[in-house]
Amino acid sequence: MKEDFDWLDEKEVKALVERFESMVKEGVQYFFDVDEFEAVIDYYFEKNLMEMSRKAIDQALAQHPGYTGFKIREARLLAYRRKFYEALELLNMIELLEPTNDDVYLSKGEIYSQMNKHDLAIEEYKKSLPYTQAPEDIFTSIAYEYENLNNYTQTIKYLKKALTIRPDSEDLIQEIAFFFEITSREEEAIEFFNKFLDDNPYSKQAWFNLGIFYNTLELFEKAIEAYEFVLAIDETFAAAYFNIANSYTGLEHYRTAIKYYKETLKYEDPEALTFQYIGDAYENLGDLKEALVYYNKALELDDKFADVWVSIGRIFIRQNMDKTAVGYFEKAINLQPENSDYKFELGVLFLKQSQTQKAENLFEKIVKEEPGFADAWINYSICKSLTEGYEQAINVIEEGLEYNNENASLWYRLAGYLYKTGKVQQAFYYIESAMKLDFDKHSELTNFMPELFQESRFMELVGIYSGHQ
After folding, report:
1. What is the pLDDT, as a whole number, of residue 76?
2. Which of 23, 193, 324, 421 gives 210 a disulfide partner, CB atoms 3.0 to 4.6 angstroms apart?
3. Closest by alpha carbon to 310, among 294, 327, 297?
4. In the listed set 405, 428, 456, which residue is the last one of a domain according to the structure?
5. Phi, psi of 413 (to 5 degrees)
6. Which of 316, 317, 280, 314 is nearest to 295 (CA)?
């Protein structure tokens, strides 16, 4: 139930509350008119002082027994105490007396919502529409009930109805965008925001969200155009600079991206993420020195930013400083022990350094935690082949295939190990099976076993299955 006491400022409400509490304390009777009692009761509701709300409602009904607004508040108090059916019974009695009172339907809607009876809540909210002076609030309430029912199509529909009445509401625009996003309806979102902007061309929030959806579909030029409209309306909109930079990154225009990332720093406090993205852009340009400068700036702001520790580790790898890189990956894994990608990269680094047992331990851990990580199974098998031989490597791949039966890379690797153990017929059976799944990945097998190019049978299979692509 929406209250509006603009006729009273905060000081006046406080004075009314003090006067009421003085009356209760002294046990005397002061007169309060209906509006004054409503202000006092609603003050206590807002402060969650339900015992005082009860006293105020009792006094209000004693002085104004015929006023239904106090009975509606009594129903709300009953609902707060989880006496839902008593509250609904009281509201049903009021509805018989005042069938055009929108507060009755709103209160019933709120109670049904608390009871998780969202369909009934929607019915009550809809009943209030002919009588309310704020239909946009009702549409929003209906939308959130549909959200509770996981009916996002209807959620968006009613948020759109609310936005039609209040096109300047940035909150509604954000909510609509959110539901388009979680339902992966990017093209529909783009169509909606373009139509909305035809009538509301100065809505920076609409332009901003339009840019986001263009960016999601990798329509980077269109995204940049949308963000530039945001900045034409409000040149201090820091997020628009940041998102333009992301779009230029998508276009691989890294120098322009850096320029826009740096623009955000003029309009908001520096964030570690911004410095990380600037570092990424410099790294993509091959300027590792500047990349390190900005990665370190990111860590100065947030030394628990695991991605940045990994980024610095990768730079050291590029500079052939593998031993130094190890420490950075280990730091990232300590910060995010559940991150399999970090562990995989560190395992690869250990393999490169011939620290096979350390690598094996990491890959084994990954496949136990995330058995769908096919590349980890392959690297785990490589470690096993180095420490215990190809038979153990075969066992690892066969276990991996239990979770990744459609992964061609695993079948190629199994074929390779079988070939190396002399099981040539079986190897060629799996090579052909893998080619049927994904011919292009046969290069992974030939990288592992270039001697296959000398095998006429293998080249015959290549000729057959290359024609199927």
Report:
1. 87
2. 193
3. 327
4. 405
5. -65, -40
6. 280
Decide if 307 is inside a domain: no
**Cβ–Cβ contacts within 10 Å for residue 235, how many?**
12
Two tokens at 40?
């006092």
Q: What is the 8-class DSSP label of residue 451? A: G
In this structure, is residue 285 part of a structural domain?
Answer: no
Q: Picking from 15-24, 149-158, 220-229, which range would have the lowest pLDDT averaged per residue? A: 15-24
What confidence tens digit (pLDDT) does each residue in 325-380 have? 999 999 999 999 999 999 999 999 999 999 999 999 999 999 999 999 999 999 99
Distances (CA, A) of 151 to 154, 301, 374: 6, 41, 36
The answer to whether residues 345 and 384 belong to one domain is yes
CA Rg, the chain, in Å? 33
Closest alpha carbon to 395 in 377, 370, 374, 373: 377
Same domain, 422 and 467: yes
Distance CA 90, CA 88 (A): 5
The type of residue at 14 is: K
Helix (H) or strand (E) holding 382: helix 374-387
**DSSP string covering 67-123:** -HHHHHHHHHHHHHTT-HHHHHHHHHHHHHH-TT-HHHHHHHHHHHHHTT-HHHHHH
Question: Looking at the domain assignment, is residue 446 inside a domain?
Answer: yes
> Would you say 186 and 193 are in contact if contact means Cβ atoms under 8 Å apart?
no
DSSP character string of 241-254? HHHHHHHHHHTT-H
Total-model pTM: 0.81
Give, in order, the Cα–Cα distances in Å from 96 to each of 112, 216, 388: 19, 52, 84
Whole domain around residue 430: which residue ranges? 415-469
One-letter amino acid for residue 262 of the chain: K
